[in-house]
Amino acid sequence: MKIIEYILNRIKNPERLPRLQPVYVLSMLIILLSASCKKTDYLDTDNSQRPPLSAKVKLVNALSITAPINFLDFTRQINTSLVTHNLSTDYLDTQFGKVQYNTTEGSNTSYKSSYVFGGSANFQQETDKASFSGPNGPIADFYHTLFAVAKRKPSKLNPGNRDSLVLVYDDLDAPASGKAKVRFANFSPDAPNVSFAAAGGTAIFTNVGYGSFGDQTVLTYDATGKGPATIPGLSWKTLGPFKEIAPVAGVNFEIRNATTNAVIPVTGAGLTGVTFEAGKIYTVFINGTVAGGTLSATLITHTK
């Protein structure tokens, strides 16, 4: 910055620059200013002059009941209108870093779920000294999906939470030419481990348990709730991974019991006449209950 101060001093005293034209001096100053500005300068600028940073989050109401909900980061409502059952928002700007996400139901202001995510500016491998949920949360300039889902059993850590929240990172890089990208999740609290397949065809995803995604990196914990020093294959892309598949149009899909291979009935038309278009990115999830005959499937499309 001393060079810039030197030039500024000369501009204030033009008689000391007899051979330089003012336009040339200003050009030099602009070049030097541009060269001196680095990403680290973001922290050296006033708050009002910083470009906004935010995490992009798609909000999904994947509950097993039909109530519409609101999503909040801390006490700020993120969505502009209630998110109805089995629907999602576009990617919205939310707080990044260490964030408490909450949900409320309808016009009620009491929290139905409340969880803290994050603690790091980037995705990190957990260690045997910290819980996986600790360091990883919404990251600035990343794309994420936050699902509100039915809780399978009461939580000892969060007994006041009726529902659960699941946050994953979305890899929105385009699929290979002629391919679609698909992700599958099981959010039915009483469903067995399931497989997702075209009717009568080979399964695309197999043995997907409650609260999990097909082909995700499995997270293991010891009796104290801590993970191992390393988890092979873990990255931000493998928590809720997408798989590239051949595109299909108007194809019926089915949910199978991963153990018996029996087809599990699904209400509605969520798996009827499904189209996965080349170049596009999708998530399919199931929710509702098997015992109650309300198991359903929903398809959402991801676009920036």
Plain-language structure description:
- The protein is mainly β.
- The chain folds into two domains: 2-48, no CATH class; 55-302, no CATH class.
- It has two helices and 19 strands.
- Strands 9, 12, 13, 18 and 19 form a five-stranded mixed β-sheet that branches. Strands 4-1-7-8 form a four-stranded mixed β-sheet, with no helix packed on it. The chain has a four-stranded antiparallel β-sheet with strand order 3-2-5-6, with no helix packed on it.
- α1 (2-12) packs antiparallel against α2 (22-36).
- The longest helix is centred in the N-terminal third of the chain and has 15 residues, at 22-36.
Précis, in short:
This protein has helices at residues 2-12, 22-36; strands spanning 55-62, 69-73, 76-77, 88-94, 99-105, 111-117, 143-150, 163-169, 180-186, 194-198, 203-208, 212-213, 243-245, 248-251, 253-257, 263-264, 274-276, 281-287, 296-302. Helices cover 9% and strands 34% of the residues.
Supply the key terms.
304 residues, mainly beta, 2 helices, globular
Uncertain regions spanning at least 5 consecutive residues: 22-40, 126-135
Given the structure, what is the number of helices? 2
- Helicity, as a percent range: under 10%
Strand content: 25-35%
CA-atom Rg in angstroms? 25 Å
Number of domains: 2
Say how many strands there are: 19
How far is the N terminus from the C terminus? 38 Å
SSE sequence, one letter per element: HHEEEEEEEEEEEEEEEEEEE
Mean pLDDT: 84
C-alpha geometry: globular
Derived from helix and strand composition plus strand pairing, the structural class reads: mainly beta
Largest sheet: 5 strands, mixed
